[in-house]
Amino acid sequence: MSEFLHVLTDHWSLFGQGFGNTVKLFLIAAVGSLVLGTLLGAFRVSPIPALRWFGGSYVNIVRNTPLTLVFAFLVFAVPKLDVDLDYFTAATVALTVYTAAFICEVIRSGVNTVAPGQAEAARALGLTFDQVLTQVVLPQALRSMVPPMMSVLIAMLKNTTVAAGFSVLEAGAIPAYMAEFGEPQFYVLLWIAIGFLILITPLVLLQRLLERKWAVAR
Amino acid sequence: MADEALIVLENVNKWFGPLHVLQDVDLSVARGEVVVVIGPSGSGKSTLCRAINRLEPIDSGTITFDGRQLPAEGRALARLRSEVGMVFQSFNLFAHKTILQNVMLGPVKVRKEKPAVARERAMSLLERVGIASQAEKFPAQLSGGQQQRVAIARALAMQPKALLFDEPTSALDPEMVGEVLDVMTSLAREGMTMVVVTHEMGFARHAANRVVFMADGQLVEQATPAEFFANPKSERARDFLSKILTH
Description:
Chain A is an all-alpha fold. In chain A, 80% of the residues lie in helices and 0% in strands.
């Protein structure tokens, strides 16, 4: 037991740095993909065919590409175009671009749960497309979007570990360092699993809070 | 009744796939006129009503409202829709907003009115349709008849030039039909321009200036209610009336 604890206490700074970067990656990519995904979701339900086509193509291409490939593209291919990207930035962009495709689909399916008559009545009043979306459709869609949205965000939090393969020191990179120190891998992996459990708990609590809050207003 | 036409449909055609739902429809509605559209289900009367504010785009022909042709999607269309109120069969009140917020949304967001001004008018409209005491409730807490009266108040809050009613009483329990028709009748008496798709023959008889009979996507005949109900000219209309009036 004491050996198990020592694995953590002897390497506080490594665990701290690793999980710190995981959280940073997650937060930036979460905000980025929510913004980009909502925009793409709006494209997919817009009355303009070109926007619908763009949103659909984005989802089909990005969602069908393995995440490691998206990372590789940003880390190895984009710098060849004379764009200066450090590994951390490249990882954030890769996660954002990839997760936005999933967020977009969550938004779209949420919008589809709202009865078409709601949007029709809003349009009949003279609301513009963005007003129909922000005033009438999205507020009603939010409730059904919460559980799948949280699943996407939790998956994204765990996807941050792919960045370890691309020279970013986040939680997924810790085992490799610890192996060099000769620490037992089983304990290291257990601590990392516990770390992710702790990080995911607030998301689960947030989901419950939002579901309860939006359940009332109807 | 003024002679100036507010709504003009010329040669309007629409297909749903192979189904020709509107066939060369010509119709002109004068300012202050109440036109009731009747006909068997599937005759295209709802589509006709929804085409007037372009909730259903048409495939050919022209629709003019207040001297201007209907614009394509975009801000110009939104502006036109704000001048044409619409009341739906399924009420379509915004489920996440209170009754008062439902009535205020258009004036505040579309017309950019001050909330205090919009609220005052919304309350007086709710008063008029007899729902003022329920202003803070959500739509699901009201009966169908009450919801439909709120929907009429919501349309009136935009101070529209015309009102479209798409089977406004078809989803109501029988005992609630009267309260909605009462509101519609009083609007008709005040000179509101109205296009009403309905199966309520009583309303057509006493509130309409003109009855339009549709069947199979065609506008078969139109006449004053007295003339139409007493002496329908077409075989289709006679057949339709015999089916609904014998019960």
